[in-house]
Amino acid sequence: MSELPQDLYGQIDPPQRLLMGPGPVNAHPRVLRAMSADLLGQFDPEMTDYMNQVMALYRPVFGTANHWTMLVDGTARAGIEAALVSLIQSGEMALVVNFGRFGLLLQEILTRIGARYETIDAPWGEVVPMEAIAEAARRLQPRLICTVHGDTSTTMAQPLNGIGAIAREVGALVYVDATATIGGMEIASDRWGVDVVTGGLQKCLGGPSGSSPITLSDAAAALILGRRHVEKGIARDDIEDGHGAMIGSNYFDLAMVMDYWSPKRLNHHTEATTMLYGARECARIALGEGLAARFARHAAAGRAMTAGLRAMGLTVFGDDAHRMTNVTGVWIPQGVDGERIRLMMREAFEIEIGTAFGPLQGRIWRLGAMGYNAMKHKVLITLSALEACLKAEGFRPPLGEAVPAAMAAWEMQA
Ligand SMILES: Cc1ncc(COP(=O)(O)O)c(C=O)c1O
């Protein structure tokens, strides 16, 4: 067995890095402060009050009046998996609106569940037209339509207005992964008519990863509670099992999570207190700023980033009409080694920008400006650093153009 160093590796003391990739981003200091508060027992009245406050605070963040608005403990993927495993079962049909890596993730989880699915696809860098979703839904008559709102892998935001009406017409529910847009672009769960939406803290909400806010419509809640099978060791006479199929995961069984978040406080997992404090503060900060102002700030940051990259002579990736405001893809210019630039950005400037996945790996960088980092000075510093790194690598950007272009774009009205 190897020997531990005498100082046990020292205290955690990370560098002050500016995280300007597709997330995670630097957490808002208020969130980190909230997370250093003392712990409470999970049935302590102060703790259950905090849980109820979280439910109230996240309703406007999701654009909903849904009663069932709470947290799934775990990263954003935990929310996605909890939603899918609780909403659909083996053999049932789903329609996946697929335009990037996270549409592929939905398919992978559906496969694990044993659900059948078909996809309606857009090439990476585009979104799926609503008419195509309607046509596929009418043809397939799925139980569930699943989509991503903003797919960080492609930087595209799928329009969702009208998807709920299509689902109701064919008797389906709609699930939306809004991890990458929640708190930065409008999430209009009720107006879109979608049933389950999940998020994460580590992007536009400006927190750490590790908690997944979720909202469920009454229809989704009824379906899920119909599949309730209370764990044997905590069964109570006043809580009846449903007649539906048992949910194929204990941890992600939303019926049990709902019973825990309800006044019954039926024990399930031990709520991740510190993450709940963080999630609560994220929502307080977002609502305190005002959602409209916050969306405008993210839009200004996205406009500025895009304008600055273009002024540098770079080509922005994807369809302009459906760009996420908070993360921008840009083609790595010919002859430039994308990883060397990322290394130089990190080593010389302490700035992280993102690489890409799948068909875009090694071809685009992804630059984010979200949550606490969707700020003018952080966008300008990132652009200046990128310009310097490109010059050092032999690419000849028009020097000194990016920052003024970004400043002008920041001020423009959307
Ligand atoms: C759109 C989208 N969905 C899901 C995830 C997965 O989130 P997590 O890594 O927090 O599980 C991400 C993270 O990048 C994402 O961008």
Features:
414 residues, alpha/beta, Aspartate Aminotransferase, domain 2, Aspartate Aminotransferase, domain 1, two-stranded parallel sheet, 13 strands, binds pyridoxal-5'-phosphate
- The helix content, as a percent range, equals 25-40%
Q: Using DSSP, what is the number of strands?
A: 13
CA distance, first residue to last residue: 60 Å
The major beta sheet can be summarized as: 7 strands, mixed
Q: Classify the beta-strand content into a percent band.
A: 5-15%
What order do the SSEs take from the amino end to the carboxyl end, as H and E? EHHEHEHEHEEEHEHEEHHHHEHEEHH
Strand order of the largest sheet: 2-10-9-8-5-3-4
Poorly predicted runs of 5 or more residues: none
CATH architecture level-2 label of the largest domain: 3-Layer(aba) Sandwich
Number of structurally distinct domains: 2
Overall spatial form: globular
Structural class by sheet pairing and helices? alpha/beta
Number of helices: 14
What small-molecule ligands were found? pyridoxal-5'-phosphate
Alpha carbon gyration radius? 22 Å
State the CATH superfamily name of the largest domain. Answer: Type I PLP-dependent aspartate aminotransferase-like (Major domain)
- What is the CATH level 1 assignment of the largest domain? Alpha Beta
